[in-house]
Model the fold of this input.
Amino acid sequence: MRLRDPKENLQLFLTRRCQLRCRYCGLRKGRADMGLKTALLGADYLLRSRKENLVLEYYGGEPLLAFDVMAETTAHACRRAVRLGKEISFYTATNGLALDDRKLAWMAENRFFMELSMDGGRETHNSQRVGPGRGRDSFEAVRALIGKVRASGVDWGVLMTCHPSNACRLEADFELLLDLGVRSFDLNYAFAAEWTFPAQDAYFKGMLAAARRRREDIAGGKIRIGNLWPVAEPAVINGQLTVDTDGTIRHFNEWMFEAVPAGRASPLGFGNVHDKSDINDVYLGRFHSAYGILRMYEGAPRTRRLILNNIAAGYRFKRFFTSLRGWVDAGCAGRFALPPATPEWRLAGAAGPSPSSIMLE
Amino acid sequence: MYHPKDMVFLFGRSSAEECGRMLAAHGRRLQKRWGRWSLVPGPALGIAIDDPDFLADRRRALKLLALLRRPPFHVTEMKAAAGSLFRPGAGGPDQELLDALSPEVFAPKAGGRASGGKGLILDAGSFPRDLVRVERVVSGLALGRVPVRVLVRLGSACRTVEDLLESLVGIARLGALSGGTLAVEALLSGTSPRDRDLRELRGLVPSGGGADWPKVLDAVLLAALLRSEESLLSGRDLVRGHRLAAAVERFKEFQELRSET
Done:
């Protein structure tokens, strides 16, 4: 069987270790690391894709805690890509705490796009991104790195995850990161948190105000907001594939809720990179992503409600950013209407009033 | 400027001999209009048979198709009910008739280009189970060389969400079976269903052709799954929730329908 449109990117889950214990992170932390052999097989698994342009992504935990495996896997993937006549590039998301000049220089040489997890100002960032011990100022630790990152030549940006409790500060947080020299943003909304309509509206208000203030730089490409380009929403069912530390191939978002033990194993099975699994055989659309994760939490109605809420919010975020792009392209002129209520809102199970219809004149 | 077009024939109850005489008369008119055969533009030699029961008269169909394999004419469009390609009492497709629907019937003779007609238009009927018959018919055709378009009616016979999903699975299977050489059009006919779920899920189905049918099936299954979850978790309508969940369970495996070959 040769499926149409095989995957072109793959995430390697290098380690479950992390220096932080972020409150919005649903991942169970631990000591499990991906062995080098598994990582190399993961890269080979991706390189068997019939697609020509591939992206290998390193996640964790904190992937830079497994830097040696990352470096050897990258070198291996580059060599094989040349032999196969394919293009490959690399991505990693990091909390920055293990970042140093050597790693930055290496990433700059190896076609990496690196995203620093940075949620905004000190209050916002530290409200969620906390260490296992007390008193760690994780905001300051990342802020102190930015000059070094900017000077390194690596292609970089920030992964700005917004928790509903911080949505009201989004505009201020965005401005603060701009002041620090950030010019590339990918905005996430925290999973496994309930996105009520008022929280969504607060997020949209903040983003609209920021976009209006910076419209020329956004339209001119000086500020990049990844969400303004087509993204796979709802993100919680975006069908991304990940290789676990033991080589099991899983749906990425199975992890997002695992802080709550699932009642069942995932009904989706994609094999293991140690067996004869072929990425060209994998079909993982939005239905199967949702089916898999909902069935895993069959006995956990609260988690299933959160999953439904995150899916419904994802539809609305997608419509918002699609409209925002058109609005920015048109010079932010005229009224901006928020996405209208659709049947999906019924699934949100969100508290609070219905979404606003018009936000800005 | 004159643009020659294909001639539409409604043969009705005419015999094979009468149909042959109609075609011969048409040929003489073309010859008179253009002076000689070699000057007749290719598109003017195309004929469309706008008669869904044309193949039901088997003897006539075999004779005329044999005639149309040879120059000068070619078929641009031919409507056929899928059932008319089954041999009565035999329980299976009429292979002799399927063989007679050969690529030569639809190929322009005299080196002309294909006119862009729809080829063989198979009316699949309205019931999801009819698609199984269409699948058997399509398997017997020289797909890829005979242009085939299947019309599926998602109308009043589609009474439940399960019916809708069964039809979409059937459509996607046809696409997978043909390796993409088959065009499938859905016709959303009939009155709007009273059942809210069916009405709204049917709204996700694009009318016409050109859709990525496994993608449509994915979207409808996802919407049905989310509705069932919402019903079950809210406790507002458990019967509805279980009904939708059962439909989702029945049709959840369709990955192979995205296969290329």
Summary: Residues 301-329 of chain A form the longest helix (29 residues). Chain A touches chain B through 24 residues (CB under 8 Å). Chain A has a mean pLDDT of 89.
